[in-house]
What does this fold into?
Amino acid sequence: MRGQPSLCEVLTPLNLAEALALLAAHPEARPLAGGTDLMVPFAAGRLPDRLFLNLWDLEELRGIVVTDGEVTLGALTLFREIAAHPLLQREFPNLVRSAMVTGALAIQSRGSLGGNIANGSPAADTPPSLLAYGAELELTSLRGSRWVPYADFHTGYKRSLLAPDELITRIRLSRMGEGGFHYFRKVGTRQAQAIAKVSLAAWARVADGRIQDLRLALGSVAPMPIRAKGTERILQGQAIRNLPLDAALAALQADISPIDDLRSSAAFRRKVAGNLLVDMLRGLAPT
It folds into this structure.
């Protein structure tokens, strides 16, 4: 059975304050922005929601603001806007690359960063990059706003810290300058318009021949996008010319918990995740 629009109601607020008031009165309403994630299950008749809150026209949720210390992106920032932003290209290239491999141009012109996060898919393209960059999320309701580390936001498959009356309003990234090592790789069935079988994003800083800081994140290998913290601990402080590769690979296998599904097998995902880690480390410590 396909989705039936005639059975749905869409609330369209004029501004953020009105949107929060409607959500407080109707916490069962499903927030709807670009709709690129929701329309697939809706068209297939697998979306149970019948009341939607249309956020598309809320200018308060748009825009990329740059200060000396941080970059703040409105939740409705589109993937094409991320890909085209000069400062993001220079300082956060992983986020740009992950935005550019999200669907096709039509999806990138409609899909939003906040929607990609809120949908909670473990295979989403931008979350590993956001985790590797230590992103923070602003969650807002009529009760006020709170900032939470993105690393704490997802609590399980399609579950998060977001309360029924809250919206993701902004995403914040601390600027780290143009130095550092950036790595992003997505493995899918095709080069474009494919859901990730495995993805890996990393940011590292090397000084005096050693890894001084490292954040490593993966998608499609657990019920949610994850930081590989055990692997990070093994590699932190190590000399890049003598990295404990076997120990790092063993730690990675302990960090992830992939499953068999229609797109791939758990064994394949484990193998590919290890291969991506090796590829990343080779880039970090070229021979």
